[in-house]
UniProtKB/TrEMBL annotation:
Superkingdom, taxonomy of origin: Bacteria
CDD domains, alphabetized: SirA_YedF_YeeD (cd00291)
Entry protein name: DUF2249 domain-containing protein
Species name: Ammoniphilus oxalaticus
Domain DUF2249: residue ranges: 3-68
Membrane spanning stretches: none
Residue stretches in coiled coil: none
Pfam families on file: DUF2249 (PF10006)
Amino acid sequence: MILDNRGLQPPEPMMRTLKALDELQVGQRLSIINDRRPMFLYEELEERGFSHQTIVRDDGGYQIDITK
């Protein structure tokens, strides 16, 4: 699943991401695309036991691949 959060103002990207994570099943991956690095999201992912990888995109955005 891909969630494009570009163009949204905080806290909407975080809220959309957390809602999508609640629906994620074990073994599934969520990729989010943000305009900015989601610094507060990383702590939430760690607390919930998700693994993640951040990729800086050529367009200056950030793609975070999250696996449950």
